[in-house]
Amino acid sequence: MGITLTWYGHSTFTLESDGKKLIIDPFLTNNPLTEATPDDMDVDLIVLTHAHGDHVGYSDAGPAGDTIAIAQRTGALVVCNFEMGNWFMNNGVENVFQGNPGGTYRGEWVDVKFTKAFHSSSFGDGSYGGQPNGLILRADGKTIYHAGDTSLFGDMALIAEEGLDCAILPIGDVFTMGVDDSIKAAKMLNAKAVLPCHYNTFPPIVQDAGAWADRINRDTNSQPIVIDPGNSYTVE
Description:
By secondary structure, this protein is an alpha/beta fold. It is about 20% helix and about 30% strand. It contains 6 helices and 16 strands. It is globular.
């Protein structure tokens, strides 16, 4: 069947396999790259890398407004780290799975393994958001790595041993690794395909995705996949 990834700008992706669907880092309200809203997201799982507003969603509804809106309307399970889980349960979300780096959520159709990421993590109200994470997702015999917000780190070579069909890497610089370090990351991860994220949302993180793709083609063994917000790519 394959896994279909749809990008909504920034780091927000849906992942769909055999009629089941999850969303990663739902930043929809106030996201200039998408017209999608929380009401458009009918998902089984909400998977979060860290607590920043551009990953859990922020709006007039308050911190993590998009995540809370989707979770309360759909009943979707929120999969996140321990401290984030406590915050969500204290803010009206009942269906939560809490993990930490090295641990795995094992679901009926998808497994989500938490990896480390080098970043910070706090909610819009100042609450501590725990250890930021990357994610290794397995469904339908495919393995996808969403790096979350992170710098380059050497243990990406160990993540490569998971056998990656696809890697999703931030390239925006300033708050995450930029283009140069993402090329180094792609070399270490050795995924069959690599997608860029966390760029062009705001002026400080504008990048030329076409030039990035040229470098991936030239300098790595991975296939670059650049899609516009709202478009999809199927991992087969």
